[in-house]
Amino acid sequence: MGIIGWIVLGLLAGAIAKIILPGRDPGGLVGTTLIGVVGAFLGGWLSAKLWDKPVPHHFFDGRTWVAAIGGSLVLLIAYRIIFGDSRARR
Predict the structure, then answer these.
(1) Nearest to 30 by CA among 60, 45, 10
(2) Which of 4, 22, 65, 67 counts the highest number of beta carbons within 10 A?
(3) Angle CA(9)–CA(15)–CA(19) in degrees, nearest 5?
(4) pLDDT for 6 beyond 70
(5) What Rg value do the Cα atoms of the chain yield, rounded?
(6) Residue 59, CB half-sphere, CA atoms under 13 Å: how many?
(7) Would the CA dihedral through 25, 30, 36, 38 be positive or negative?
(8) How many whole angstroms separate alpha carbon 37 and alpha carbon 29?
(9) How confident is the prediction for the chain on average, in pLDDT?
(10) Would you call 41 exposed, middle or buried from its count of C-beta atoms within 10 A (0-12, 13-18, 19+)?
(11) How far apart are CA 18 and CA 15, in angstroms?
(12) Share of the chain above pLDDT 90, in %
């Protein structure tokens, strides 16, 4: 899967993670894409390290999507714990 595929997967995984965990997070489309792409890599790495199940690098494989969305959720939760609701303070 090429870099464009990872960006598209990250955008969709980040959007799905934000649908699962709704809230007001700064960043918009760029933030969603970054959380999704980094989350996709994080999910793949965690899958390979913790469960000894490397994620295949195929765009339409279900395990790739589960790992990407799971990693995005972990990253989104960590982001909210670290930075809190930054828009509420304004």
Answers:
(1) 10
(2) 67
(3) 140
(4) yes
(5) 13
(6) 12
(7) negative
(8) 12
(9) 76
(10) middle
(11) 5
(12) 0
Buried b (16+ CB within 10 A) or exposed e, 53-69: eebeeeeeeeebbebbb
Q: HSE of 61 in the Cβ direction (CA atoms, 13 Å)?
A: 14
Burial 10-28 (b: 16+ CB within 10 A, else e): bbbbbbbbbeeeeeebeee
Q: With 80 as the cut, is the pLDDT of residue 83 above it?
A: no
What are the tokens at 65? 């999507």
Provide φ and ψ at 10, rounded to 5°: -65, -40
Q: HEC states along the chain?
A: CCHHHHHHHHHHHHHHHHHHCCCCCCCHHHHHHHHHHHHHHHHHHHHHHHCCCCCCCCCCCHHHHHHHHHHHHHHHHHHHHHHCCCCCCC
